[in-house]
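Researcher: Checking consistency across runs. Here is At3g05675-like ankyrin-like domain-containing protein again:
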Amino acid sequence: MIELRVADTAVKEWSDQASFTADLQRAFRDDAWRNIVPGFPALVLRCTSRLANAVASGTILASTLVRTRLVKDWLPVLIVCKDNVSPMLSSHKSLYTELEDTFLSIISTLPLSDAQGLLQQCLSFSTRSVEDCPHLVTAFNTWFRRAARSPLPENNS
């Protein structure tokens, strides 16, 4: 997509899917639906992961609004998949962890108020102990450091 110069548009469209992601969450919670198309959640998350990785790495330059929407709309889908899609295959577990890490990287670039709300949703990443989620600990440490800094004075030119 990057070579075809459609990646920027794809990220904008993917981040503007609030109603679609709400429908996906309902579908992924439904046992009957999950049995009909068992590989679909992983496919959706792989697509999301590729776009989010490109945004997090700077390959795709996305506005603050697009980055916020991308995480805000797709983070709940990740959480539902992680909680409801079974069995938890090792390939899915690595996909979930990679997408969690990518979302946390994007969150660390957002304004503090947006980051705070999204980080609270990320608390579900922690399964048993701090050792399970070093990427979550790093994201919270980054947020606390940023929040503790005094605001920069504005230039009155």
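Researcher: Does this match what you'd expect to see?
Model: One thing to look at in this run: The radius of gyration is 17 Å.
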